[in-house]
């Protein structure tokens, strides 16, 4: 009787190759986003000198979403608000979620597609929040962008095209829907912007569902020569056909990601230039209207 282990099936080998390349990629964009959000939050803490009331005023001056101001052509608030947070807990929860979801999605889609998805989801969350908030309310946080990433992972598992092996996609979809449902329940807690979450989530889901995020990935079949090391030396290597996946058109997404990044950073800069949140000597009543 021969109890030599069998060679892996083609789909198993395909997944092994996918995960090997996946682990080799570093989520540098995710870490950069975490860094920018953390720095902006620390600046807000440093510029606030008046406790809870000062926190709201500081966020307002840094670019938080306030519907009357956006209606007054302060459009930079749509992007700037996505980099602001109300508290240490708020920032820590969002940045942990960004790492957990973003590090997977960046490796799966590539840096350009991932960054564009993040920033477009942030914009989608800001727009829906803007359409629903009361004039006296203030909205801030990266939750809309993160919701876009969460729903994108779920839809990517269901409609992965050539971006993921079929088995990987099915396992991701089975686990991710629970994450989305849990976060949907949390979104109904008073004080949380349900519209901001849904706006970002719908944007991320739509970008993947329509195929925009996976268009350009190609799957080509190639032959890999394998040889079971437990076989005797006289056994010839075994040719196995596997599917190789790659992004054939990263260029346009990289350009879009750079353009959106410049727009987001300039939105923060414009808000800060307009309201000088670091200048505690300027009373709130004297700020530009």
Mean pLDDT: 84
CATH homologous superfamily descriptor: Rhomboid-like
Extract low-pLDDT stretches. Answer: none
Largest sheet: 2 strands, antiparallel
Q: Count of helices?
A: 11
The end-to-end span amounts to 86 Å
Instruction: Bin the helical content.
Output: 55-70%
The count of strands amounts to 2
What overall form do the CA principal axes indicate? Answer: elongated
The side-by-side strand order for the widest beta sheet comes to 1-2
Rg measurement, Å: 23 Å
Overall structural domain count: 1
CATH architectural designation: Up-down Bundle
- CATH class value: Mainly Alpha
Description of the structure:
- It contains eleven helices and two strands.
- By secondary structure, it is mainly alpha-helical.
- A two-stranded antiparallel sheet has the order 1-2.
- Helix 7 packs across helix 11.
- The longest helix has 25 residues, at 251-275.
- The chain is elongated.
- The mean pLDDT is 84.
């Amino acid at each position: 009787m021969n109890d030599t282990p069998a060679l892996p099936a083609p789909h198993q080998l395909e997944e092994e190759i996918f995960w090997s390349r996946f682990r080799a990629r570093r989520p540098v964009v995710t870490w950069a986003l975490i860094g920018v959000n953390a720095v902006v939050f620390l600046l807000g803490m440093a510029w606030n000198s008046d406790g809870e009331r000062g926190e709201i005023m500081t966020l307002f001056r840094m670019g938080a979403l306030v519907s009357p101001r956006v209606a007054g052509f302060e459009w930079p608030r749509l992007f700037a608000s996505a980099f602001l947070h109300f508290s240490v807990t708020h920032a820590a929860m969002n940045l942990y979620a960004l790492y957990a979801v973003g590090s997977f999605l960046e490796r799966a889609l590539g840096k350009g597609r991932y960054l564009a998805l993040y920033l477009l989801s942030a914009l989608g969350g800001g727009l829906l929040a803007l359409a629903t908030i009361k004039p006296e309310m203030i909205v801030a946080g990266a939750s809309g962008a993160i919701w876009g990433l969460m729903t994108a992972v779920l839809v990517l598992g269901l409609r992965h095209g050539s971006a993921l092996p079929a088995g990987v996609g099915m396992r991701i979809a089975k686990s991710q829907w629970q994450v989305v449902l849990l976060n949907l329940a949390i979104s109904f807690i008073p004080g949380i912007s349900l519209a901001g979450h849904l706006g970002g989530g719908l944007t991320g889901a739509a970008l993947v569902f329509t195929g925009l995020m996976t268009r350009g990935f190609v799957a080509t079949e190639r032959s890999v020569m394998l040889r079971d090391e437990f076989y005797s030396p006289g056994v010839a290597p075994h040719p196995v056909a596997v599917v190789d996946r790659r992004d054939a058109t990263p260029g346009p997404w990289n350009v879009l990601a750079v353009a959106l990044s410049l727009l987001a950073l300039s939105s923060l800069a414009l808000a800060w230039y307009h309201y000088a949140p670091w200048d505690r000597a300027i009373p709130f009543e004297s700020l530009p209207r």
